[in-house]
Amino acid sequence: MASKFKKLIKKFGHAIDGLKLAVSEQVFIIFCGIGLLVFIAMFVFKVPLYEKVVLILTITFIMTLELINSRIERILDIFQPDQDLNVKIIKDISAAAVLLACLGAATIGILIFWPYFRALFF
After folding, report:
1. Orientation of helix 2-22 relative to helix 49-79, angle to 10°
2. 70: domain range?
3. Which pLDDT score, from 0 to 100, does residue 120 have?
């Protein structure tokens, strides 16, 4: 039993190492900043619990998708360092997935926060 627990702890350590590497990437840092602002806004505007859940899931989804996109790009760079058309297409589609998710997240953010901003400024 102790052996399984040690293996589990080791796996968490690898995941933490991966997060440390992710924080070195500029886009991931930007997403962390935006996520932090949204998280703070949730409490400043006293957003209902179900909307907080939606926002937290959305932030998590965007950041996870960006991690996957970054790994796809790194894997392709390892196996095909000289970029060819197929590598470009795969990278572009992977980046498009992140962009599409970000547009959806922005829409969710606007739908949730618009009434609060409207009440604050108008």
Report:
1. 80
2. 29-121
3. 86
Question: pLDDT tens digits, residue range 27-72?
Answer: 999 999 999 999 999 999 999 999 999 999 999 999 999 999 999 9
DSSP assigned state of 82: S
Q: What is the dihedral of CA 26, 29, 35, 40, to 10 degrees?
A: -130
Within-domain flag for 1:
no
R_g of the chain, CA atoms, integer Å: 18
Read off the tokens for 64: 């996870």
Task: Give the CATH number, domain containing residue 82.
Answer: 1.10.287.3610
Count of the separate structural domains present in the chain: 1
End-to-end CA distance of the chain: 61
The pTM is what?
Answer: 0.86
